Amino acid sequence: SASALNLHLGLLTRFSLYLWSHDSSSQDVGHIIYHELCESIVKWLADMLALESATNTFLA
């Protein structure tokens, strides 16, 4: 549902921003890849949420 997607999007966004703010000084490749993965997941969820709001047919 939209509310579930909103919740997951919000939690992932806050979690990734928290990690980013605490690990931004780290140049470790693993951290960089992890942050890129978090951003990709957040973008995917945002796309799914936009798709659902546009079509109202997305099934969670």
UniProtKB/TrEMBL annotation:
Q: Which UniProt keywords apply?
A: Signal
Protein's UniProt keywords contain Signal: yes
Query: What are the boundaries of the signal sequence?
Result: 1-26
Q: This chain belongs to which protein, by name?
A: Uncharacterized protein
Upper classification of the source organism reads: Eukaryota, Metazoa, Chordata, Craniata, Vertebrata
Question: By which gene is this protein encoded?
Answer: Nfu_g_1_022661
